[in-house]
Amino acid sequence: PLRIAEWIYTCEPVEHATGVVESWTDRRNALARLVSPLVTGVKDRRTHNRATTEQTLDNLKRHAEATTRP
Q: Rounded to the nearest 5°, which phi and psi values hold at 12?
């Protein structure tokens, strides 16, 4: 199998709520890192992933708060 990345979501108790931490580990080999910008159009993977992580967590929070029953 082609190893690209490992994504982990960790839930933690936070005052009267649950916090979620999203993290990722780049598993690409040197060749994959070299050609990745050409294939994906993403030149700065770290910055790109930080932005999409924030968007994912915001969406998760919005969904959780909309479906939480008092």
A: -135, 140
> Is 27 within 8 Å of 6 (Cβ atoms)?
yes
Helix, strand or coil, per DSSP, at residue 59: helix
Pick the closest to residue 18 from 65, 53, 52, 56 (CA basis): 65
**Can you give the pTM of this predicted structure?**
0.70
pLDDT (tens digit per residue) in 28-46: 999 999 999 999 999 999 9
Using the CB atoms, write b or e for 24-51: b if 16+ within 10 Å.
Answer: beeeeeeeeeeebeeeeeeeebeeebee
Nearest by Cα to 60 from 16, 17, 4: 17
